[in-house]
Specification:
single chain; alpha/beta; 11% strand; two-stranded antiparallel ribbon; five-stranded mixed beta sheet; 2 domains
Length: 243
Amino acid sequence: MPWGSHFRTASTTKAFVATVVLQLAAERQLPPDDTVEHWPPGVVSGNGNDGSRITVRDLLRQTSGLFDHVDDPGIQRMLRAHFDENRYNGNVDHLLKDESLGLRLLWAEERQLRQEISGVTATDLEDPARFVRPGEVVLSGLVWWTAEGGRDKAERFVSALRTAGAAVLLAGEEPHGAVPDDLIEACARHGVPLVAVPAHIMFRAITDTVYFQQWGELNRLHALPENVRVRLSRLVTQDAGPT
């Protein structure tokens, strides 16, 4: 990874930071009721913030009242620019042509099969819009769907994907034996490509396939360390699949 790289770790860091802080608290080096002002004086001040009234415990509980930096316009611009610059140039059709996955197209317009894939997310929330980014492959085991009220549930789920800009919905066949007609009809109404995932295919295999291709693209752009680029190049040459 080159110096100066930007990538979104998001909430992944919370658990690590909290663990280290609690370890320091157990060692009596960082009392949780100490104020922020006590440790980095002057860092939290202005804009209505007062570090002398915010404790370490408040930070860990996310009850400090501080502005969420992710909502800052500058941060948003940076995230969007980085996202666009490093988009994976694979598309939905590439996944369908991978015989090892055995995916089956249920509905899509021809042009949608050429849409670029930005990543993968797996969800079984009834309304997944908050957690789906534009251009993502959405994997769902359809745990949220039931025969009773199935049409309305499918409508809500697919509408959320449409709003979020998902590239394609990959629906698992195992829970219900087949992808429900309610879901196929909802995808057709909202224009969301729908693909069936055979019961014997693990979602991990699909995720690995997408990100293995993305790593290959990063390798081409020399955005990976030399030893990783060499290893990936060797695997690609050997037509190796995800491990």
